[in-house]
Design goal:
- This protein is α+β, with helices and mostly antiparallel strands and about 775 residues long.
- The protein contains 17 helices and 32 strands.
- An eight-stranded antiparallel sheet has the order 9-8-7-14-13-10-11-12, sandwiched between helices. Strands 21, 23, 24, 25, 26, 29 and 30 form a seven-stranded mixed sheet that branches. Strands 2-1-6-5-4-3 form a six-stranded antiparallel sheet.
- Helix 7 runs antiparallel to helix 8.
- The protein starts with 8 loop residues before the first helix and ends in a 6-residue tail after the last strand.
- The N terminus is likely disordered.
């Protein structure tokens, strides 16, 4: 411009026309005197309208403020000024302005000598758009980098994790931060539905459903779609009367479908992405990522969530399996504790019942509610919280047993309608005979009835059988007093419910197996108690009809005693009998059948009957043992044997033959030679030392016979092995020598009460803890050979 000092104004005008910037020549007061084509194009106006306009009416500050009356909106020192150019339609475009005041010496000769202002304007709209695009791309790059690093961090945090809660907490919080979401949750597929296993910290003060059953809510829908889904969650409006007052909807953005959503299953988000987690074909759960505001989730976020779920499924599978294993171990320990209580207890169900029920409710986190029949009202009554009694609406079978399963419990991978059908889901172990165990579903008749009365609506019905615990038949009115409270809270209940609230997950397969095993144990316990009671009654019958006794025989004074080691059975395997034959002959039999209790007593009755028959046939002791051995060996299923002492005594001759088959040697106490009662110094004991093998063990067993002579006053003492095998607290045997010494001592007092005195000696030695049946027989011969 300085080079144009001597040129005329026309030359200046031609010069500004060739520049690419918009140029305006203004007077000192801002009036536009001349503009070039670029200025006309930039302002989108005619040249005639622009010339004569005040420049201050076209250029405004970035705050859209007009310059004052005597001020310009720009400086006059050629520095860049960022301003806003107003267009005829009232809009603005950003421009860069530089201005220079032209002095008198720069104007051509002959021109008016007033000063002028040269204004150069450059549009910044394209530059601003470029900068905005650059900023947007940079922001997107930063966001992508954040999502990528967050995704990698999530994946790396999942590798090698050993604790499920820590893993889920880390993954969900990092996932929410990486994708700028409002929060995230994960539901694990369990028996009956989806259990909330983790949520991000941002949802700590929000309502998040703890459990969503199959057939309801977003997780079931995602499971059936088997894909990542984007949803809007919409609350119910006044136009949705058909949905009910406590319902809303969720809208699938991709499939463009609406589904009903119960209020208890509504997530904390307005918008969310839900992705199923699969391990192969096995469903592990559903991950939800959501925002608290309505928005449209990006495809990229869905892909990131799918990648995370794929990697997470591998770790989840191991940790879920480990968690199930720990739960299985916990239930097994509890089952063992219950078994110990039942089988090592005294058999008193009243005493054990509080501990049994406490352990069951502890490990299952359930409430136990007894059921009993009210004979006065003729219906079943449920006792809740130890006194709140409610009449059941029907019978047990009608209320708890059916063959229809609700749709909520079908295979989650099956292509079925999501509509929930009415009915009860039942499953019982086929091999249970008397005990019944069945699930109670929240959608069953029983579950709906429980919920209607404000009670926990899901769990298990347990019927321990008619022979278990207390008798059905108490009146509900009885529970009002102290006796009734004992009935409800302390006595064993045949039937009861183990219940959980709707906010808890239903009884899963592990817990149900735990109860089925417990039912088996209860059944075995009841059957065992029933068997013991039956054996006790049989034993009493055997005692009444087959109790060992000795016949009255002239020439013999006898004493006998039997002590059974089995307190429940009053008889056992030891037996004895004295058979009177013609011609002053008798047969004495004392034996011991292997085993104890009723089974041994039954076999001893068989052996005693057979030997009695052989005696009447005139057989000798040796042949009697041989014949009995053949008979017992003929029973192919009989796994028993017997020891015995058989003596055939001739009272006229003072002579006897005997066979000792596997039996401890009997003892013959010869009376004192001086005939003085109580003098043991001259008494002698003769052992029946000829021994043979047991009867009933081997078919080829041979039996030997022995003999002895006796005189008046001699005592034949016979006993079973329980006498010499008795142990003291230190574990020492009583033994044959102690028995001989005790016999010599006690025989001096006579035969009357001799066996009782010998048993007292044994009780003293064992501290009254005999472990085997003991039978003892003493025969004093009042006739015989003279000395």
């Amino acid at each position: 411009m300085e080079s144009l000092g001597k040129d005329d104004l026309a030359e200046l005008a031609r010069l500004v026309e060739v520049t690419s910037d918009a140029v305006a020549l203004c007077a000192k007061d801002g009036t536009i005197l001349r503009v070039n084509r670029q200025m006309v194009s930039l302002t989108l106006d005619d040249r005639e309208h622009i010339v004569g306009t005040d420049i201050k009416d076209l250029l405004f500050s970035n705050a859209f403020e007009r310059a004052g009356r005597h001020q310009m909106p720009f400086t006059l020192d050629t520095r860049d000024c960022s301003l806003m150019l107003k267009l005829p339609d009232g809009s603005f475009v950003p421009v860069n302005v530089r201005a220079l005041e032209i002095g008198h010496d720069l104007l051509p000769l002959g021109a008016r000598r007033a000063g002028r202002i040269l204004v150069v304007i450059k549009s910044m709209e394209e530059q601003t758009a470029h900068d905005r695009q650059t900023q947007r791309l940079l922001s997107e790059l930063q966001a992508a980098n954040k999502r990528l690093s967050g995704t990698l961090s999530v994946i790396l945090s999942a590798v090698g994790s050993k604790d499920l809660p820590t893993l889920l907490d880390t993954v969900l919080n990092k996932l929410s931060g990486a994708l700028d979401a409002g929060g995230s949750t994960i539901y694990i597929a369990e028996n009956g539905g989806f259990k909330l296993r983790g949520f991000s910290k941002s949802l700590a003060n929000c309502y998040v459903p703890d459990f969503i059953p199959y057939g309801a809510g977003i997780p079931t829908y995602v499971l059936r779609q088997s894909r990542a889904c984007r949803f809007y969650v919409l609350p119910a409006t006044s136009d949705d009367e058909d949905l009910g007052p406590a319902s809303g909807t969720f809208y699938d953005m991709d499939a463009r479908t609406n589904m009903r959503l119960n209020v208890e299953n509504m997530p904390a988000f307005k918008t969310l992405i839900a992705v199923p987690v699969f391990f192969g074909t096995q469903v592990l759960g559903v991950i939800e990522l959501g925002w608290m505001r309505p928005c449209f989730p990006r495809d990229y976020d869905m892909h990131v969530l799918e990648v995370v779920s794929d990697y997470l499924s591998i770790e989840l599978m191991g940790l879920v399996t480990n968690a199930r294993s720990k739960r299985s171990d916990e239930l097994t320990r509890s089952l063992n504790r219950l078994r110990d209580m039942v089988y090592t207890g005294s058999g008193d169900l009243h005493g054990m019942w509080p501990r049994l029920t406490s352990e069951m409710t502890r490990v299952l986190k359930c409430r136990l509610c007894p059921l009993f029949f009210d004979h006065i009202r003729g219906r079943y009554v449920l006792d809740f919280d130890g006194g709140s009694k409610v009449n059941l609406p029907g019978g047990i079978d009608e209320l708890f047993f059916s063959t229809v399963a609700p749709a909520a419990y079908v295979d989650p991978l099956a292509e079925v309608d999501a509509k929930i059908h009415r009915g009860a889901w039942t499953y019982t172990a086929d091999d249970l005979v008397d005990v019944r165990v069945v699930r109670v579903d929240a959608n069953s008749r029983a579950g709906r009835w429980l919920a209607l009365h404000g009670l926990p609506s899901q769990g298990v019905f347990f019927d321990a059988g008619a022979d278990f615990g207390a008798e059905d038949g108490a009146s509900a009115d009885d529970a009002d007093g102290a006796e009734g409270l004992m009935l409800v809270e302390e006595r064993p209940h045949r039937m009861f419910l183990l219940l959980r609230s709707a906010s808890q997950e239903p009884i899963d397969d592990l817990e149900y197996d735990y109860l089925v095993h417990l039912a088996h144990d209860f059944e075995m316990y009841v059957q065992g108690a029933r068997k013991k009671e039956s054996e006790h009654r049989i034993a009493q019958t055997l005692q009444a009809g087959m109790r060992s006794s000795l016949a009255s025989v002239p020439g013999i004074t006898s004493d006998c005693l039997y002590s059974s080691a089995t307190k429940q059975a009053l008889v056992g395997g030891d037996f004895y009998t004295l058979i009177r034959l013609p011609d002053d002959r008798v047969v004495m039999i004392l034996g011991d059948v292997s085993g104890k209790g009723v089974e041994a007593a039954s076999m001893s009755a068989l052996v005693k009957t057979a030997l009695s028959a052989y005696a009447w046939e005139g057989m000798g002791p040796q042949r009697m043992a041989r014949s009995l051995n053949s008979m017992l060996m003929g029973f192919s299923r009989l796994e028993t044997f017997a020891t015995m002492f058989i003596a055939k005594i001739d009272l006229r001759q003072g002579y006897a033959t005997y066979c000792s088959a596997g039996h401890p040697p009997s003892m013959l106490v010869h009376a004192p030679r001086n005939g003085v009662q109580g003098d043991v110094s001259t008494a002698e004991i003769e052992l029946m030392s000829v021994q043979s093998g047991v009867v009933g063990a081997f078919e080829t067993m041979s039996y030997e016979a022995g003999s002895f002579e006796f005189s008046p006053g001699d005592i034949l003492f016979m006993y079973t092995d329980g006498a010499i095998e008795a142990r003291d607290p230190a574990g020492d045997f009583f033994g044959e020598q102690r028995l001989r010494d005790a016999l010599l001592r006690e025989a001096s007092s006579g035969v009357d009460g001799l066996c009782g005195r010998m048993l007292s000696t044994l009780d003293t030695f064992t501290a009254s803890a005999l472990e085997d049946d003991v039978a003892m027989v003493a025969l004093r011969f009042d006739t015989g050979r003279s000395r």
